[in-house]
Amino acid sequence: MLSKKLNHRLDKPLSPFVRQLARSGITPNMLTVGGVVMNCIAGATLLYGFLRVGGILVIAGGLFDLLDGALARVVGKESRFGSVLDSTLDRYSDIIPILGLLLHYSGWRYSEEPRLGEAALCGIVILGTLLVPYVRARAETVIEKCDVGLAERAERVIIFAGGLIVGAEVAVLWILALLTHLTVIHRLFYTRSQLAEKRGAPAASATEKNEGLTPSDAETE
């Protein structure tokens, strides 16, 4: 939702800075990789329990992600491979900090008591974080667009990092667990309704129509 509102509106104010980056020989793919490196450092920081520092590093990694897209658009270096690389490395950036927090809660250092409930909650957030873009990518093979839902990447980064910085990491994990899985469900129902509209029938009728199909037929329809 935040991503849709901002869209490319930041390109103009960022233009002087990203043009300077381009003149320095920095490419969008370099910034993409830099964002992953920053999030790897954040994950290691969270692993050792430095949560506020980890939150700041997650924000820094998000800024790299913001700049790589702006640089590609402003200097005309958008490419299909760059898009695939960005999407792939975004998944690493999404998961590594949460994984670091999960390991921190697991009590991997014997000097600390395990917090298995919080570790399990991190696992639920990781699952939801992976499913949100997966459902969108899968849905957009059968409908034009599926960017509905509250837990897009920008929102997740801001909520997670903000919670770490203010010391409300457990509350934020509950929020992310709820929002990510609600977004997955929202996208599934949205896709179902869009497919039903294409067929000119309500979603319920579409379900009845598919009852006679084999599983493979229903999956590819």
TrEMBL record:
Keywords: Membrane, Transferase, Transmembrane, Transmembrane helix. The chain crosses the membrane at residues 119-137, 157-179. It comes from the Bacteria. Residues 199-221 are annotated as: Disordered. GO terms for molecular function: phosphotransferase activity, for other substituted phosphate groups. It holds the Pfam family CDP-OH_P_transf. GO terms for cellular component: membrane. Coiled coil: none annotated. GO terms for biological process: phospholipid biosynthetic process. Belongs to the CDP-alcohol phosphatidyltransferase class-I family. This is CDP-alcohol phosphatidyltransferase family protein. It comes from Candidatus Abyssobacteria bacterium SURF_17. The lineage of its organism: Bacteria, Pseudomonadati, Candidatus Hydrogenedentota, Candidatus Abyssobacteria.
